[in-house]
Amino acid sequence: MPRTRPTVTELARRLTTPPDTVDAVHDLLDRLWAVEPTITDEDRMRFETALIELASNVVQHGDRGSGVDWSVNVTCDPSVLSAQLVDSAPPISLDVDARLSMPSELAEDGRGLAFVRLLVDSATFANTAAGNEWRISKNRAT
């Protein structure tokens, strides 16, 4: 009897801000949830919140007056949800590992990346030839 391969779902979206907003990422994830109904509510919430936080940062900080092109790729396999977000904004200097803990209650910024790290199992950032690249992954509940 032939072995069946685990199902892998991949969805992608290319965006330009303006006019695109994080609503486009919500729409992409709504498509994923429709195709992958076995993803638990908790996994959905954690993954979606982390990805929307990253997308919000691109929309809010990436456009320096001439817009920003960006892409979002999401993948779901039986054990992991993952996403890659790449933007064309100028390269940023960021030490993701330095943002492991939440800033003080009085801090006005700096919570977003720490929050992302709390929500997913892996979060990385790199400056690549393609642009600023963010990757997150969340192990699925079994």
From TrEMBL:
Pfam families tied to this protein: HATPase_c_2
Positions of the Histidine kinase/HSP90-like ATPase domain: 19-138
Alphabetically ordered keywords of this record: ATP-binding, Nucleotide-binding
ATP-binding as UniProt keyword: yes
InterPro entries membership: HATPase_C_sf (IPR036890), HATPase_dom (IPR003594)
Gene3D superfamilies: Histidine kinase-like ATPase, C-terminal domain
GO molecular function terms attached to this record: ATP binding
Highest taxon above the source species: Bacteria
Protein name from the UniProt record: ATP-binding protein
Originating organism: Labedella phragmitis
